[in-house]
Design goal:
75 residues; alpha+beta; 5-stranded antiparallel β-sheet; 17% helix
Length: 75
């Protein structure tokens, strides 16, 4: 499942980060790595950015960039 499919309040574990090298490096710097938990705090209206939390870091990510992150629901 892609990160962009998560709803507000849901959390999941990152399994894979793909895409252009500069995007992957930026996401890794923010803590988005396989094995890390990511939570969707809120979603902007009309297909706007997602407000995410990884650890103690909060940031916004465009939906098309969230498509490059594969996650699975934590058990």
């Amino acid at each position: 499942m892609k990160l962009s499919c998560l709803r507000c309040g849901e959390s999941a574990c990152v399994t894979c980060v793909e895409g252009e090298a500069c995007l992957v490096r930026r996401l890794q710097a923010l803590g988005v790595r396989p094995g890390k938990s990511v939570s969707v705090i809120r979603r902007a209206a009309f297909g706007g950015p997602l407000h995410l939390r990884v650890g103690s870091t909060e940031f916004f990510l465009r939906p098309r960039e969230a498509e490059s992150i594969t996650v699975k629901h934590a058990v």
